[in-house]
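dumping this here before i forget
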Amino acid sequence: MARSTIMLAVAGSGKTYYIANHLNSGANNLVITYTKQNVANLKREIKKRYGDIPKNTQVLTFTSFLYRWLLKPFEPILTVGDMTGIITYGVEVFKEPEPPSLSGRPNPRYFKKEDYRHYIYNQKYYSARMSELILAQSKDVRKKILERLNRFCDQLYFDELQDFMGKDFDLLTQLVRDPNLSVFAVGDFHQHSVSKSDFKASKPYIKKGKVFLSKDEYKLLFKGKVNIDERTLIKSRRVPEQICTFIRNKLGIHIESSSLVQGHYELLVDEAKILQILSDSTIVKLFYNNSLKYSCTPTINWGYSKGDTYEKCCIVLTKTFESLFEEDFSCAHLSPSQVNPLYVGLAEH
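structure:
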């Protein structure tokens, strides 16, 4: 029987709240998320539930988890490029590793995987290559890493599952598939490819050459290895039913509502009304990107609004969605990187 659970949620359904209110305060817990902001959110919710962070519970970023739990304790036996046994002094989070090529030409400053400098800069790990380094270890070393994790941790919680991409996602799936580990991971699949910063992950999920996977294809990555829960967090506490219905009908994303708020939306075509909305500082204006270049205030990119709640907002549609309100509109030909930011924008009500 699978010990781990993947919970696929929707925007505003209370993912952080769920983790905080379902962890066993007497167990050894690791609660992991991608950003420091989400760490603060998780700590706040856990303190609401227990008064303080339980003694044996740690809340940390994924980068800290990799360093403290999976790399640093094993440095004497790690193989890092052409070296075995190293000493590091932390994680390099400001300098990105050199890419293999620049402008289509080989990059002379790039170090191949056979060179320890592929992973290390000034005795610090490149944060972007930590998962890659763990996955590159021998089977025996990886076994030792997982055995230690199992010995000292009863339950692993991963928040914002959709943010795990590339090698980070590959490592997460290995943790989920390990029969001795108990992992709970929750996220909104339809928010992948959407970031609250300028960070861009080029390839969220890759399978047989496909950059983006459908939700069903994504679930197959865990089939037989994990319990997949698509019902517990299907209702948004933030998004009104009227908006949820619009999202279901127009974007094909299944989201329900438990909100008591009476939602409203309309397509603005009258120039005078549009100018009135744009000049109203109580209404947040959402642009696809480059929101700061517009003179109206306040403004924010569609994707950057992720996790926010606005009483009123105005979404400025792109040419891609100029027929969104027409009956025959379909987004079947659009990629997730086009649809998901609009979903995020629509769901911040």
